[in-house]
Structure to design on (365 residues):
């Protein structure tokens, strides 16, 4: 380990850790099981020009959060849910709120009412929750399904602790008219485009370098793409609706699987190995704030990614970690990894398990 690595792994370095700002994002799924992505403006301070899920910072008005030194600040919380719903409305114009008089239906307002409210909420002329209630609605926070948390790596100055959610817009039924959910950009304030497409279509555009996706968006789109596919129905509305609902049920069942389940995973990407022009990114670490806790990410997958500096990434690919580790690491890389972990966390159970795996033994991480 170099002197620089030792310095970065020292207790003093942890005290200089940039704060991870609480934020939330939604994988918003349309009535035809497409995913909404927004294109960030070129001058954005984070994810410039990239396609992202609607979301953003948690505001004080969204609700209380535990203090930064409390690990519970990195858990699902009503404030994260309210912030996710509010940011979705500000950024896309889609209001995820239930009618107070008929909670089984989403609140329906005129386009003029929504546009006026969107502008007022964004300018903080009125609180989002107050505005929704004044129009007879309730923010639909109960319909959000947690789908991973992401902690920005420690070496990046602008850091976030982002709770991701799934939200399914209601399917169309033959017995009732379909409510239109047409996303719009925020006029170039933070985004220039807003569009629903199938997850596999977004991934294809990223692989063709037509759009920029960062690892969190790429991984989550890759996961849902296995479930949200063009339905193979007989063409009737009843059959189509059944196929779409079946896909949603399968995805929600998947979110409950894993160790920990996908709804509880906390992922802080870290450089596992450099391979030619590609960086292999590990997804198992929960982030520096959660070192020594029971929280962890995905031990099975990695991301192959080629960075283009500020322009984003190219050639992303999700792969199985077993295909490149432990055999994929050289002896020197194994020892560097192990020594770094010893410096950061001491000789804990997790370190011993990692050491056994990296040395080629059969024990699980």
């Amino acid at each position: 380990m170099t002197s620089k690595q030792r310095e970065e792994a020292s207790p003093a370095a942890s005290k200089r850790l940039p704060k991870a700002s609480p934020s939330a994002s939604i994988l918003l799924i349309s009535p035809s099981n497409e995913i909404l992505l927004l294109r960030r403006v070129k001058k954005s301070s984070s994810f410039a020009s990239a396609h992202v899920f609607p979301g953003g910072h948690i505001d004080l008005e969204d609700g209380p959060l535990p203090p930064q030194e409390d690990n519970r600040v990195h858990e699902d919380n009503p404030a994260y849910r309210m912030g996710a719903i509010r940011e979705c409305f500000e950024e896309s114009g889609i209001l995820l709120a239930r009618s107070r008089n008929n909670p089984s239906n989403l609140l329906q307002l005129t386009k003029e009412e929504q546009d006026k409210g969107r502008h007022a909420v964004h300018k903080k002329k009125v609180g989002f929750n107050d505005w929704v209630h004044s129009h007879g609605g309730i923010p639909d926070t109960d319909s959000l399904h947690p789908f991973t948390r992401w902690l920005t790596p420690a070496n990046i100055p602008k850091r976030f602790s982002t709770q991701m959610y799934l939200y399914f817009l209601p399917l169309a039924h033959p017995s009732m008219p379909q409510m239109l959910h047409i996303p719009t950009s925020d006029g170039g304030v933070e985004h220039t485009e807003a569009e629903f497409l199938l997850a596999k279509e977004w991934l294809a555009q990223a692989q063709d370098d037509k759009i920029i996706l960062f690892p969190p968006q790429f991984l989550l789109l890759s996961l849902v793409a296995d479930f949200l596919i063009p339905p193979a129905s007989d063409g009737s509305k009843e059959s189509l609706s059944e196929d779409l609902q079946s896909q949603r049920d399968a995805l929600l069942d998947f979110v409950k699987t894993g160790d920990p389940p996908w709804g509880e995973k906390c992922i802080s990407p870290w450089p596992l190995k450099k391979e030619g022009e590609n960086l292999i990114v590990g997804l198992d670490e929960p982030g520096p704030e959660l070192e020594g806790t029971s929280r962890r990410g995905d031990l099975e997958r990695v991301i192959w990614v080629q960075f283009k500096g500020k322009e984003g990434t190219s050639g992303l690919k999700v792969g199985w970690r077993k295909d490149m580790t432990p055999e994929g690491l050289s002896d020197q890389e194994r020892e560097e990894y192990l020594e770094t972990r010893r410096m950061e966390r001491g000789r804990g159970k997790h370190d011993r398990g990692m050491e056994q795996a990296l040395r080629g033994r059969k024990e699980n991480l």
